[in-house]
From TrEMBL:
Range of residues in the leader sequence: none
Domain of life of the source: Bacteria
Keyword Transferase tagged: yes
Family matches, as PANTHER family: PURINE NUCLEOSIDE PHOSPHORYLASE LACC1 (PTHR30616:SF2), UNCHARACTERIZED PROTEIN YFIH (PTHR30616)
SUPFAM superfamilies for the chain: CNF1/YfiH-like putative cysteine hydrolases
Designated name of the protein: Purine nucleoside phosphorylase
Catalysed conversion reaction: inosine + phosphate = alpha-D-ribose 1-phosphate + hypoxanthine; adenosine + phosphate = alpha-D-ribose 1-phosphate + adenine; adenosine + H2O + H(+) = inosine + NH4(+); S-methyl-5'-thioadenosine + phosphate = 5-(methylsulfanyl)-alpha-D-ribose 1-phosphate + adenine
Keyword Secreted: no
Pfam families listed in its UniProt record: Cu-oxidase_4
Length: 256
């Protein structure tokens, strides 16, 4: 079933992955919800100060637009760590920043508002992963750890995988202190020659973990959007000084 034009304002889908049969993959925008400022309008975050009734209605709209039953979603209270959970049941877990499963009709979701959502699909073994990669998770190699877990659990091979590196804070907007900068290699870090500030490219750092595993570059889609530069369409914790909503990135397989 194709979403209606009105439903499409609630999310965007990477063409590379959404064209694969039976795969649901999407990340929400900030449009089409009921939340007032500063959460306007499709705030899907359960750990914000928004009215829980607004969040519940927003989530209902988002999942309905994707024709997903909310009680078939698995997510976790994220802690900016690097722990990976193998899950076979929907529900709200605690303490994991990456989820993996090979169960159909189980949809994995991660919450973001500057951090990187990374969605992975093993087409041969019909297994999926949803990863929340902030700078801490990226520096800890959470994408690499997730792929290792998929390899151990599902016998995942790189050539069978497709991945999406989603919308996050862009490199020009993500200046960091020296303690953070030293955790990133030169290919993912830029030092401004005038100010001396360091800027980190989270998209490239996470893409590198995918290609280091062996996933072909042609199997990887990278969002062209920024939570800061495209703040009219996405929430940004940094740009909005913490007073903002959250997006969801979701991946899963339709039942046969």
């Amino acid at each position: 079933m194709q979403p209606s034009e009105k439903a499409k304002e609630l999310f965007r889908q990477p063409t590379l992955l959404s064209s694969l049969e039976g795969l649901v993959v999407a990340e929400s925008t900030r449009h089409g919800g009921v939340s007032p400022q500063p959460y306007a309008s499709l705030n899907l975050g359960m750990n914000t100060s928004d009215d829980p009734a607004n969040v519940a209605e927003n989530r209902r709209r988002f999942f309905e637009a994707l024709t997903i039953e909310p009680d078939r979603v698995a997510s976790s209270h994220q802690i900016h760590g690097a722990d990976v959970l193998l899950t076979t049941e929907p529900g709200r877990y605690d303490g994991y920043d990456a989820l993996i499963t090979n169960q159909p009709d189980l949809y994995l979701a991660v919450s973001t508002a500057d951090c990187v959502p990374v969605l992975i699909y093993d087409q041969r073994h019909r297994a999926v992963a949803a990863v929340h990669a902030g700078w801490r998770g990226t520096a800890s190699g959470i994408v690499s750890l997730t792929l290792k877990a998929m390899q151990e659990q599902f016998d995942t091979h790189p050539g069978d995988c497709y991945a999406y590196v989603g919308t996050c804070i862009d490199e020009t907007s993500f200046d960091v202190g020296p303690d953070v900068a030293e955790q990133f290699g030169p290919n993912h870090k830029r030092i401004d020659p005038f100010s001396g500030k360091a800027f980190i490219n989270l998209k490239s750092a996470n893409t590198k973990q995918l290609t280091d595993f062996g996933i072909p570059a042609a199997h990887i889609a990278v969002s062209t959007f920024s939570t800061v530069l495209d703040n009219k369409d996405y929430f940004s914790h940094r740009h909005e000084k913490g007073q903002t909503g959250r997006m969801l990135a979701v991946i899963g397989l339709r039942p046969s």
